[in-house]
DNA sequence: CCATATCTGTCAGACACTGACAAGCATGGC
DNA sequence: GCCATGCTTGTCAGTGTCTGACAGATATGG
């Protein structure tokens, strides 16, 4: 009843309206910038009232970053499906692959780059994006703790290891996005991620879950 | 003329008023929370108008995170003073030590923990903090590029290495802050940082500036 | 003592966001 | 076909952050 991805008619039309709003909004954002576009402009573009737009998106940033929230669930599911014996760094790399694949999926890959650029250029959007990444890291850390617990080598409650490794991996993701935006000619985001994640990695001082 | 840390009378009184506002605001934030405290409340607490408070702080978040901006300059200076032959990871560790030392300095160390907790608990504040860390990373990456340039082994423009290493280090900083807040009994932030930065690190596939 | 610069309060406004209410429109039982 | 129910929508009103403009108070420097 809450906010599931039901196949009901209501939920379907709701998602359609969401897409319509996001589509019109992104066009305006690309055209005249994020901050220079008001909610009223977006509402007028789709023929709705300002209030209704806010019924579909809790905040202005969510219009741009809303898609990311949907990917997060897929990424966490991908992480859970990774074999327990796999090195953590590899599992995190494969988790990011889910996001990269959707970003480079054919059809709407043209909008990905300008939107990406806007997110990293607009302070408010970058802050919101980093906040979402941070929130996702909490979920990843929980998963890593559960995995270590299942392996018989749980982390101590105040052990910074799982969060440090996770934060380092997410740092590589952001570095890859930066590098991808700066690359000329434009390479693939997947290769940028691979290169970034090859430059750093976890250190295993003693035996700790192979 | 712009915004330097002059020793003039004007700049001195201005910083005094800033401190007074921040002090009163932090008391209110700790007492009733960040979001539940309005600018009008803060203005009333220091006997000023709402408009004048905004003349000293561009945003509500800056009242809390303004001190961080001052530390950033010291940290960047510390990074520049590190010997060029020192491993990057160690240089970054020493850079963070500057911030840790100020956080654990005697006198105002009691306020550090509750403020820390508020920052990590309040979404808007966490987002603003992460944004500032990201902006600082840009400066650190520039410094690392300049250092590699001076060493005769410059990075390519789209090489994600310097940013990935930097992002990983900052991830360790955040992980250390988390671990420090979660630790009972409360350990030192410096030791938490040391443990976090020991868990991950750069990989040197080939010879690249010792 | 005066010209200049700075600080201040007040007013007004843009903008994001929220709650409340009533009207429109659908679905589903009768 | 008809009506009750529930969801969506627009309108209105309000809060809170943040900004610009103006005028008065205060301080600085010649």
Automatic annotation (TrEMBL), chains A, B:
Taxonomic superkingdom: Bacteria
UniProt keyword list: DNA-binding, Transcription, Transcription regulation
Family matches, as InterPro entries: Homeodomain-like_sf (IPR009057), HTH-type_TetR-like_transc_reg (IPR050109), HTH_TetR (IPR001647), MftR_C (IPR041347)
SUPFAM superfamilies per record: Homeodomain-like
Boundaries of every HTH tetR-type domain copy: 15-75
Keyword Transmembrane helix: no
One Gene Ontology MF term: DNA-binding transcription factor activity
Entry annotated with the keyword Mitochondrion: no
UniProt DNA-binding residue ranges: 38-57
Protein name: TetR/AcrR family transcriptional regulator
